[in-house]
């Protein structure tokens, strides 16, 4: 028996795990690492399934090439030869924008794809870059970019010191945190109570987090921005807006005061479903708390006013004096935190060809990918590269996109599964399992509620190339160096560029992600190297979050822009909501499960066992009115499509709301995921409407989709 200590790569919590292997290199046990500096032994069902993922017989172990409509295993050389034969002619004849990229959620959990994927994308030079970011979180990057100058400068709740936590549209007891890296959320929330603090949840559904909280307010989906503006209104009207030390670093305070005037508690009460007196009490308690923080997540970002809601979350943190303060919303300082001069944030540097949707953080909204494939003309997307993504399940109007992919001239998938999306590819390039590659949470340490770092070396050798090598081989092909490109030379070039920007000498004793992470650590804010992390298998703790204003700011003014022009321009659209009559129709929201992670972990028996979780939750009053009975089938229809799903009658959702989990629908012909196909569920994105968008960011509305529900 041997034991390895690894950081879980399956969600944002970055928990430390202890993996036991027998003499045949079989995983026999996975448990929480009691000595991990951050998670202290915590483990969730996803982490416990790491062994099942490693041993999954459906995981691809060789490249697949489609011949006469059927996939066959081929050598890596054959796969790259086919790519070189078919991809460069498309680039040459139709231009760089004729090839699109879709990068999925698992890629951000993979240091090789995080660091070397960007090398490929830059070399490709296409404006048609899409990712899961525009499905769920782009509004937060937008608001942070315009307020603080950096789309990655996202303040996170200082959970370990706050005494008042207001949560909107988030369910961290199930998600394990989102845009907030925090293992053992339950323990951290319990700590708030033990300090005499309070937890308030605003959500259309009585989630697991809402059940744990001191208060739950069942808001109407899509109206969070109205509620947040009303809280801002109360702070100004009652002279409770006190930014304290932040006032010396603020622009736009008076502008926000004026913008908030129409949004009185009385004006928003009917639309939000929350009483005006309750709104005033929420605002007063937020202002009076010793320290407090407002946190909004996917329920606030995937709605019609996602950017405005994301902005107002941090406006409230500023107005209560809780931004950049212990116990408030603070900016992490990661060990690989970028340093030096940064350019101020800009949006709309280009727009999509068909619908004119804006670029944000270098990508276009995936809501328009099908348009770009289907619409003929100069710049039409004719080829697609998907990297650890499953957009045929995870993007809006997924049925339309799945059909659109059939019209491509060529498609490559970098993926470990033959799934609902990669089945449409011409070439599939697999990668090693998480235990066969090194791991470092480059993205999530920048969102961590405590400054920590941990490097995980590969636990087991891999018979497959590392994915950074795959990315460089593809880079060689798209830059005209062919399938025999010198990967070592390309890696040296990448490392030299990182070293140049870090003002360091490039090292030769390492290769791949290890070398890049070492360079980034050496250039970072702490006196630490990769060798130091290698000598600390349970991680290194750099302490609690500390104030970082003004050094974190990189706006053109060097100040917090409390009223950024591009967001303010969307406020009149929100004001129009105040005059709209109440709509008695049903709207659809999503939901998460603790043992589920979007669409990419449903082929593991430990995570899908139990009853059918793909039900439509509906309130008893709505069920009676519509003639729906518990356990019977219902049809759910929107402008985009229709699906049939079992009914679950419950007062867990407020009247007028129905809820279906996302990421399911594993019944596509041609996929090779036996466990997932045996537990298919339904794909809620078949009814997600790609024409309903948050205007500034182009993010699709996934919470508050108008639907009709009827018995089957």
UniProtKB/TrEMBL annotation:
The record's InterPro entries line, in alphabetical order, gives: Asp_de-COase-like_dom_sf (IPR009010), MoPterin_dinucl-bd_dom (IPR006657), Mopterin_OxRdtase (IPR006656), Mopterin_OxRdtase_4Fe-4S_dom (IPR006963), Prok_molybdopt-oxidoreductase (IPR050123)
Which Pfam families does the record cross-reference, listed alphabetically?
Molybdop_Fe4S4, Molybdopterin, Molydop_binding
Q: Name one GO cellular component term.
A: membrane
**Ranges for the 4Fe-4S Mo/W bis-MGD-type domain?**
1-58
GO molecular function annotation? 4 iron, 4 sulfur cluster binding; metal ion binding; molybdopterin cofactor binding; oxidoreductase activity
PANTHER family, sorted: NADPH-FE(3+) OXIDOREDUCTASE SUBUNIT ALPHA, RESPIRATORY NITRATE REDUCTASE
Protein name, entry field: Molybdopterin oxidoreductase family protein
Give the species this sequence originates from. Answer: Amycolatopsis iheyensis
